[in-house]
Amino acid sequence: MALGISLVVAFTVLMVNMTAQSSTRPKTLIWGSASLGASGYVIIDGLTCTLNRNEKSFKNASISTQGSTENLVLLSQKEIHLGQTTSSDLFLAYHGQKPFQKKIDFAQVLSYTYWDLPIGVLKDSPIKKIEDLDGKRVSLGPAGGATVAMWQAIFEQYGIKVTPVFLPWQGAADALKIKQIDAVVISHLMGKMPIPAFEELRLSSPYRLLDTDVEKIKRVSDKNHGIIVSKLTGDQVVNAPGYTGVLVADPEIDEELVYKICSTLYGKEDAIRRIAKDLEFFRLENAIRMVVPQYSIHKGAAKFYKEKGIWKEGLIISR
What is the pLDDT of residue 272? Predict the structure, then answer.
């Protein structure tokens, strides 16, 4: 309980500090991460800690959120300055489509990983294919995460309706283990590596992945170009939907601040990759490899990438 109270107090202090500062040059940058145990939480915490150790002109604070969708809402409400999100949610936010109530302004800063998101069931489950999920209890991830809207769109292509359950990743793994739910979206990093919550589940309660119809994924991707078709090649070879991880910022944040973020982080990329497996993709050569080209890059980040010679023609710079 004491820890919970201290986190609330710390968050309140940060909010007061943030609103008291200029919206373009705050002394403390608030970063939205994800639920505890999620890759986004580990990634953002690793990046902010690295910045705080190596850049002294401003501070950074990572706060736990429900994930990608919520971070974009918090960004629009000026409650955070930066946040991890996904390519699939950027499309919905840019066009003001559900679950967003209005168009959200954002600027991409860098891409830091990609996820593959098949559905898994316990090895002894009678469920053999996606169609068998009709009417079943399926955890789609945290309510504010990007997997919810993506998988709901895919279920529509299958013509089925599941009973959605919204749990953080660790909670979902625990619920599947004791059969409180029938299936769960299992988050994998870079086509091979389940996030820690599901790696633990795999060892204690083996599960199977369900293959997803590629044509159905493509139909959803035609409407939302942030959704990708991926293939997992570990113990099982299955097709699955996926999306890329993108750090976004309030477009109004000062150009020099974002430039310093990029230069400091990529100056320490070797150390960052040693923090956790979740950060294996974090390399300068990948910085804009998986951003969404239809949406703008923050001008501070663009300045850095041009200096490093990796800028690509056709990308858009924020105003």
Answer: 98
User: What residues make up the domain containing 302?
Assistant: 2-114+244-308
pTM flag (> 0.85): no
What the block records as the tokens of 284 is 């300068």
Separation in Å, CA 190 to CA 35, 116, 119, 129, 234:
20, 7, 16, 23, 11
Domain count, the chain: 2
Length of the chain, in residues: 319
Annotate 58-82 with three-state secondary structure.
CEEEEECCCCHHHHHHHHHCCCCCE
- HSE-up of residue 243 (Cα within 13 Å, Cβ side): 27
Asked if 108 contacts 301 with a C-beta cutoff of 8 angstroms, the reply is yes
Output the six-digit token pair for 80.
């955070």
**Using an 8 Å Cβ cutoff, are 220 and 229 in contact?**
no
Strands (E), the chain: 28-32, 59-63, 82-86, 107-116, 119-122, 137-139, 163-165, 183-185, 188-189, 193-194, 207-210, 228-233, 237-249
Q: What is the pLDDT confidence band of residue 153, given thresholds at 50, 70 and 90?
A: very high
Q: What is the signed CA dihedral for 127, 237, 35, 247, rounded to 10 degrees?
A: -140
Interval 238-288: pLDDT, tens: 999 999 999 999 999 999 999 999 999 999 999 999 999 889 999 999 999
Q: Which of 243, 261, 295 is the last residue of a domain?
A: 243
Q: At what angle do helices 147-158 and 87-95 cross, to 10 degrees?
A: 90
Question: Residue 34 in contact with residue 97, Cβ under 8 Å?
Answer: no
Which of the listed residues 197, 219, 243 is the one where a domain comes to its end? 243
Same domain, 248 and 109: yes
**Is residue 257 classed as helix, strand or coil in its secondary structure?**
helix
